[in-house]
Design goal:
The chain is of the alpha/beta class. Helix content is 26%, strand content 21%. It starts with a strand and ends in a 13-residue tail after the last helix.
Length: 219
């Protein structure tokens, strides 16, 4: 029996790397699949990981109908044993329902990868529907770390190093890096405590907080 599985975690926990590995593992066993993604950091129709791995993909726009796509492919002699869907949090709830239909009616395995909540700690509509429909929810075991060294559980959006909690849900960006810690708009993973306090790494350093000691502090 086919399955609809949602692999989830915060940013920087290896979701896209696992998506690429999943595709590789199935391909070497002779299975044929498709890779889908949305708003990848590498640009349109690309699946990329922060480790430098990339693959060609099909860009998921709001008007893509997964069911119709699969039926068209199969009708014209194509074969689809599985699909890998990265950045699934950006999909429409209706598209998640279409993916579930692929599993139930066409016996196509669907492996989705994404984050549950946005920078406001609210669930993405696509992720919410996946939680409701998935046969299995897998929380990735590679832990992303907050700047304080604790396990990161929340995704934060920053503007000039300051955490913001208002704005459009979808603003494409990437995690902050040491070369540009106060970029105009970026993302950072934080533990719940520092997300509640809006205490980013840049703000902690700027205020000379005693919490800024690497992997130390008694926040």
């Amino acid at each position: 029996m086919a399955d609809l599985i949602y692999f989830t975690g915060t940013m920087d926990c290896g979701k896209s790397t696992l998506a690429l590995q999943m595709d590789h593992n199935h391909k070497v066993r002779g299975r044929q699949g498709r890779i889908f993604t949305s708003h990848d950091r590498a640009g349109e129709a690309k699946l990329s990981s922060r480790l430098g791995l990339t693959a060609e993909a099909i860009e998921v726009r709001t008007d893509l109908d997964f069911w119709q796509y699969a039926v068209d492919e199969l009708t014209h002699g194509g074969r689809i044993d599985y699909v890998v869907c990265d950045e699934a949090q950006f999909y429409e709830p209706e598209q998640i329902e279409q993916l579930a239909r692929l599993v139930d009616e066409l016996q196509i395995d669907v492996f989705c990868f994404g984050i549950l909540t946005d920078f406001r700690a609210r669930m993405f509509p696509g992720s919410a529907r996946l939680v409701e429909l998935a046969d299995r929810l897998e929380v990735l075991q590679v832990e992303a770390l907050c700047w304080c060294g604790q396990r990161a559980t929340h995704n934060a959006r920053t503007v000039h190093g300051e955490m913001v909690t208002e704005g459009e849900q979808l603003v494409v960006g990437d995690l902050e890096n040491d070369d540009d810690p106060v970029g105009i708009t970026a993302y950072e993973v934080l533990c719940r405590r520092h997300h509640r306090r809006r205490l980013t790494a840049a703000r902690a350093r700027a205020t000379l907080s005693p919490e800024v000691l690497p992997f130390g502090g008694n926040a």
